[in-house]
Sequence to fold (146 residues):
Amino acid sequence: MDSTLRRAAVLALGELGRSGEAGDRADAGRGLAGFAEMDEAVGPLLALVLDRENTFVTRATAEALLRRQERSGLRVVASALAIADPHHGDWIRTAVLDAFSVYADERDDAMRICEELAGEPDERVASGARDLRTSLAGITCVLHPA
Fold:
């Protein structure tokens, strides 16, 4: 893995995330989600999940982070959820439903990660993880393990 190229990609996507066009910002959010484990991506991702101008950007970015189905994506979403206004919170929860309503084992894995995140010293992450876990627990999945 070339860390220089990865940083350059995060910087370029961060610039796209500051575009005046909602479609560009949504594309940036989906692209940056692939780099959620990088510290440089966290700030731009949070800004896109909490996009002030268009909740389409919120939903697209949150869903891309959640579809990673791993700790760094869930951590960013939890952090955003903790400080989101009610309107953005609703769109983040819609992304949670979209990302985890099919496979119960994927939802259950995400719930376990949220339990771990709820124990973090960063209160914003911990609070958001508890909220995210509650949202996940309310999902009735379509497919369950045999």
